[in-house]
Write a structure and sequence with these properties.
Elements (H helix, E strand, L loop, with lengths): L4 E2 L4 H17 L3 E3 L23 E4 L9 E11 L5 H15 L3 E14 L2 H5 L5 E2 L2 E15 L10 E10 L2 E10 L5 E6 L4 H9 L4 H4 L6 E5 L5 E7 L5 E9 L6 E8 L8 E9 L5 E8 L2 E10 L5 E8 L5 E9 L5 H4 L3 H11 L8
Parallel strand pairs: 3-5
Antiparallel strand pairs: 1-6, 2-11, 4-7, 5-7, 8-9, 8-19, 9-10, 11-12, 12-13, 13-14, 14-15, 15-16, 16-17, 17-18, 18-19
Length: about 375
């Protein structure tokens, strides 16, 4: 017999609250979701996975693998609460894999799992303060996502390194060199000088939109009725909010206008708040950011793009700096790196590490 739960409040109060719950949710203007990205951290290769536009192929566990060269990515799965036919589940799996950028899914299998669940009706009709779960059977279909090497033509858009300098009066001092694997995961960083880490942590990393806006595992996201992310929050295991990021959009253009970052200090005190004002060009690219704290502009960042539309350089200035600025240059992989990167994971990591700039004066 399934284990029961005792109601933490009186039965009548609990019923009243539960009856009102659907109406409270209906009044909310935002929806909460957690991004489905866990399977992307199970790579057998760290090459980036991006959509190619073609329909995703499916290969079940009793079928041979495709003959075209490919690299293996993470596992992809779909879950169904009902009793849908395997063909319908397979179509859901195809759509999910295509969204993630895989050209095919191999070694596909299906199984069912039984889970105890506490539903609204279980609490509503609880007797004598005891709640019994309603079990439900889930159908799960999953496989390994793969990417055909002939479709990996986008390495030149993947960031390889960042190099930061402090420029003052014609003098250029290196702050740090930061390197990345082809899929964008952090590889390593080397600091030069006593102030280098502080500039990285408190300025460049703190206000980097790749960190603040890009969808990541472990964050909660709230979308508005247009599907735009309005808020994202990162919580600790005990639900303590570690970082709260709110996004505001221009009503006329629907483009991002402001990013408000709040970090908690001590219980009972107001969180520290920083507003990042955003300016964009005609192509919708961010070209300027102003970091405002206590109604004062603390930092200003100007972003420059190359002919291929990639971020090439950022220049940071403080308001009281006259002949002083911080410059960050960005470097990228090349499609010619692909043969060496796909040999195997060990060789690929060595190739990526050896190709990454170590000496900032000799790239």
């Amino acid at each position: 017999m399934p284990a029961s739960r005792s109601l933490p409040i009186s039965h009548q109060v609990g019923k009243t609250f539960l009856l009102l719950t659907p109406f409270l949710f209906a009044l909310s203007s935002c929806t909460l979701y957690t991004p489905y990205v866990a399977q992307q951290h199970d790579y057998e290769t760290f090459l980036p996975i991006q959509p190619s536009g073609a329909s995703t192929e499916l290969f079940f566990e009793d079928q041979p693998f495709p003959k075209k060269p490919f690299v293996q990515g993470g596992r992809v799965g779909v879950v169904d609460r009902g009793y849908r036919h395997s063909q319908l589940l397979a179509e859901d799996l195809r759509k999910k894999a295509q969204e993630l950028g895989y050209d095919a899914v191999i070694d596909i299998s299906k199984h069912t799992e039984w889970k105890d669940e506490y539903t609204f009706w279980d609490y509503l009709f609880a007797e004598d303060g005891e709640v019994y779960p309603s079990g439900r059977e889930y159908a799960i279909m999953s496989g390994r996502g793969i990417k055909f090497t002939e479709n990996i033509t986008y390495l030149s858009s993947q960031r390889r390194a960042q190099r930061a300098y402090l420029v003052e009066g014609g003098k250029k001092d290196t702050l740090f060199t930061k390197t990345f694997y082809p899929d964008g995961e952090f590889m390593g960083i080397q600091f030069y000088g006593d102030e280098s880490k502080r500039y990285h942590d408190e300025v460049i990393e703190a206000y980097d939109f790749n960190r603040l806006i890009r969808e990541k595992e472990g964050w909660e996201y709230y979308k508005d009725h247009l599907g735009r992310v309005q808020r994202r929050r990162k919580k600790r295991f005990d639900d303590w909010v570690l970082e709260d990021v709110r996004l505001k959009y221009d009503r006329a253009t629907s483009r991002l206008k402001e990013v408000i970052v709040q970090t908690p200090t001590l219980p009972g005190r107001l969180p520290e708040s920083v507003t990042i004002r955003v300016s964009q060009d005609d192509l919708g690219r961010v070209v300027k950011k102003e970091v405002v704290k206590m109604r004062e502009v603390r930092w200003m960042e100007e972003l420059v793009y190359d002919e291929e539309g990639r971020l090439a350089r950022s220049e940071f200035r403080r308001m009281h700096w006259e002949d002083k600025k911080m410059v960050v240059d960005y470097h990228y992989y090349s499609n010619e790196d692909l043969p060496d990167l796909i040999k195997n994971e060990s060789n690929a990591r060595q190739t990526a590490a050896s190709g990454a700039p170590v000496n900032p004066d000799n790239p």
